[in-house]
Structures are given as structure tokens and as C-alpha cells.
Amino acid sequence: MESIHKEILSKSKMAELQAIMTKMPLEVCCVAALPEFGLRWREVARAIRNARLPMTSASVARVICRQAAKSLPSDDIEDILAKLRLKLIATQNRTWHVIRLSNKVTEDSVSSLTQYLPARIRQALKNKRKTGRVEVQTTMLGDLIYLSIQLVSEHREGSVLYVATPPGHDVALVSSLSMATFIKAAVQGLGYKEFVDAKLYGSDVNSLLRINDRACNENVEHLHELPTYEPTPVITKQGIDYTNRAYDEKYIDNILGPSPPLLTDLKITSHKTFFDPSKLNKQINLRFHLKSDDVAKSLKSWVVKGALAPTSDFFHIFNKIKSNNITYTREDSD
Questions:
Q1: Which domain of life is it from (predicted)?
Q2: All structural domains of the chain with their residue ranges
């Protein structure tokens, strides 16, 4: 009976492994999955062609899993499965929240950090959990360390916190801000004592890191100081533009740069006194939530149409404010 149970469990894990790789885009599947099996693309591509299968991630998964079922022990398959689960999460579209880390207490190399991180997190959560065990999985994808933290018992599995961090930088991205206990444990595991919510969130990890730290940009000196707004006539193909529209567009391009960070949300909170204090002497709370495919492009289009001043503080979210959840306090409107 025990051998039958193990065989069923092994088949179940192989099926999940194949399903995870199938969900990945082909390029991501090759980069993320092949190294875990010690395979090269040339070998996998040859096997796919010999089997007369289409060159898709589903074919890659089918070929690899067929070979892995014959050659790898169940423990290795379980370990690879856990890593690929995390890599799938890392490559999927999700909202990340930036937290800034402070009071560093340990200095670790990348290899040491990935090695000791799970044990440190479990130790930090040792007295926090009532029942069950803490499962921590780590993996390296590109220049980032990804990790997952979950409380698991015999009867249920708790919510998972995902964390991404670039080694050597005092910043991390978390999948949720509500799981404070897990976040504190992750921060301690990374070698820090404290963290603060940067009030910066989005789905593009690289963009969030670029906004948080100018050093993550290709041009480190870009936007070291905001350009002075001095509108002058601009020569265009149609003639001389005295409306400042061409100047404003160029000014915004200088602020945002050639490849501005990608944000899809902008939340603005403001407080304004009621227009007739004799009738209502109170502050009115105003909230504005912009959802866009690209906030930078939307703000720029408003400037071009004359709906927003090019000197608006809204453009400072990418370099000065470093947050897309801001409080706007100016009395005069842009």
C-alpha cells in the first residue's frame, strides 16, 4: 500500500511540474526551468524535433518531465517543483509593494544569504506560530532573490507571502503588506532590523526598483536635479511654436527620460476647505485614483492637451516623491 501511495504521489508531482512549465512563456521556461534539470536548450530542442512536437513550452515540459520521471528520485523532483512554483510566481503579473530596509546587522554574500535565509526566517517565526510548520523556499532569478513564506499544517495551508530583493540593496518587494509577522521575519532573515512602507507599488519589478533608487537606472545621473522650466519659442517642422506646447512636451521628456518606469496606478489624496466656511467649516477629503496602462504616458498626454501644467508635482513621483500613493497639499490647482 505504501509503495502504491508513493507512486500516486510521484505521478501527482510530475503532473504539477509539467503544468507549471506549460504555464510559462517559452523563453521564460527555457531560462527558468532548464538549469534546474541540468539541461541545455540544444538537447531539449533536438528531443522536441525528434518527437515531432511544436516548439512550445508545453512540448518542453512534456520532454523534460518524461526524462525526469525515469532518472530523478522523488526528493529531487519535489525540490525542483518547489523552486519552479516560486519562479512561476516571480514571472507572473502581480502587484508588488516596496519596503525600505534599515539597521543592517549582517553582511552576507549572495550564496551565503540564499543558504541561511530559510533557517533565519524559521527561527524568527519560531515563537510566533501556534501550530503547523513554516515552509520557506528561495530561488535566484536574474539579479533578484525570490522567496516564499507559508504556514502549513496537516489540515490547511495558510496564505503565502512572496518577497523579492536585489542583494546588496536596502530594499525589498512584498506581495502583501497585511502579513506583518511574515514581513518582519523576512526582513530579519535578510539581515535587517527595521523596515518602512515606501507607499510605492506596481507590477513591474524593475520599474519599482528604478524609482526607489536612482542607482538602478542605466543613467545614474539622470534627474539628479529637475530641469528649470523656462518656456521659449521652439522651431518645429510647421514653423515657430509660440504656444509652449512643443517646449512643454520636450520638458516632460527631459523629466521622464527616454524609458520612464512603468506604473499603472496613481493614488492622490488632498484636503480642501469647503468653499463657504460659514455653511460648513470643515476640511473635505478628495481622493483621485488614476488607473492607466502607463501613468507616465497619461500624464504627458494631459500636458500636451493643456490639462496639466508641466511643472505639476505629479511628475515628481518618479524621482523626488518616489511614491504613487501621495498626499497633495497645494491650495492652487495645477
A1: Eukaryota
A2: 2-91, 96-212, 221-328
The answer to whether 193 and 103 have CB atoms below 8 angstroms apart is: yes
Cα angle for residues 109, 113, 119 (degrees, 5° grid): 155
Give the Cα separation of 213 and 208 in Å (integer): 9
Kindly report each contact of residues 296-299 with a partner whose C-beta sits within 8 Å and lies 24 or more positions away, as own/partner.
296/256, 296/260, 296/261, 296/262, 296/263, 299/252
Look at residue 107 in the predicted model and tell me its pLDDT: 85
Q: What span, in angstroms and rounded, lies between the C-alpha atoms of 48 and 50?
A: 5
Q: Position 223: which residue type?
A: L
Measured in degrees and rounded to the nearest 5, phi and psi for residue 177 equal -95, -5
User: Which segments of the chain have a pLDDT < 50?
Assistant: 1-6, 332-334
Entry field: residues in the chain: 334
Beta pairing, strands 133-141 & 192-202: unpaired
Local structure of residue 73 (DSSP, 8 states): -
The CA distance from 51 to 5, in Å, is 31
- Which residues, 6 or more positions from 112, have their beta carbon under 8 angstroms from its beta carbon? none
Nearest to 324 by CA among 272, 267, 258: 267
In whole angstroms, give the CA distance from residue 314 to residue 297: 12
pLDDT given at position 224: 56
Which residues are paired to 99 by β-bridges? 172, 197
Q: How far apart are CA 247 and CA 234, in angstroms?
A: 6
| Residue 113, pLDDT score | 87
Tell me the C-alpha distance between 46 and 52, whole Å. 10
pLDDT digits (tens, 9 = 90+) for 251-275: 998 888 888 899 999 998 888 887 7
Residues 6+ apart with CB under 8 A from 176: 97, 159, 161
How far is 135 from 148, CA to CA, in rounded Å?
A: 8
CA dist., res. 195 & res. 246, Å (int): 43
pTM, rounded to two decimals = 0.81
User: Among all chains, which residue has been given the C-alpha cell 526566517?
Assistant: 121
Report the phi/psi class of residue 328: left, alpha or beta, with left for phi > 0 and alpha for psi in -120 to 50: beta
